Amino acid sequence: MSKPEQDVRLKLSKRLISTAIKDGFQHLRMDDIAKHMDVSRATMYKHFSSKEEVIEAVVSVFVNYIEKLEARSSDDDESSFGLWFQQLFEQSVSLVGKITEAFLRDLQGSYPDLYDQLKDTLNRREKETLAFYQDGKQRGIFNPINEKFLLLQDDLLLREIINVKYLLYNQLSIQQALHDYYQFKKIQLFRADKLSLVDDARIMPIIDHIVDKFNRNL
After folding, report:
1. I need a surface site. Which of 80, 86, 106, 214 has the fewest CB within 10 A?
2. Nearest-angstrom CA–CA distance, 166 and 118
């Protein structure tokens, strides 16, 4: 497949994500998919021969995004911990908002091989994240807290605070909720004498970008 063709498929796949993650995709027909991609049925079939190909492309978007996380080394200096913490935060927010239970349920039921591929990628990310937390504790950068609780916190608490109903009930903007959660995570994780390793100026444009995408998908 040529690079231009890959780019077009990627662009069209991303247009479908907001629909697929909210309500799942099992009910979608090819006509519906073309509509959400904002192209004609004929144009869609130039790039995707079947619904499975469409969903495979969507899964590839997720897998490639997860694998973008920069590799770590045990020899990295302390400053890398602040940067990796922020990269993990950005990914965690994006993944919680995109990989929903509805999407995973439909994927497992309709395309188990694609489900296994995505779960394997998520499991590798989880292992890398746990190793990161453990390394930070051993080097005296992170507080001595249970790293598995940190992962569970992102899956449950983060998923709740970006829920529109939660935001409305608590009269919070998505920007304020993400900013507060970021500060909560930072202070929870880093020892007080190591907080200077985290450059907060870097996270603000990232939060703004996430907020913009969140608002466009409402």
Report:
1. 80
2. 28
